[in-house]
Design brief:
Helices cover 8% and strands 47% of the residues. By secondary structure, it is mainly β.
Amino acid sequence: MGANGASWHRQFDRAGVALVTNGICKDHQIYLADGGLGFLLGDGALRYGRENVVEAYYTAHVWRGIYLAPGLQHINNRGYDQDRGPVLVPSLRLHVEF
């Protein structure tokens, strides 16, 4: 979901919020719980939980084709594991058009 900055007199700015929920199939859950390893997943003790992400961002038009976009993600059950607590991930993106 997003909003255009024209409503607050910054026509090139944008703001948005995204919600994402990810899961893995039962076979993959069992494999990881039994000690299996994946490219990014697996520590031998999976307590499965869906990975849920909420992201908010604001893209600001700074000057002639230069945009800065600070953002923040809140992730629950990262790596599909309930034992991995929630984490906040800040971000800063730079977009340059020429």
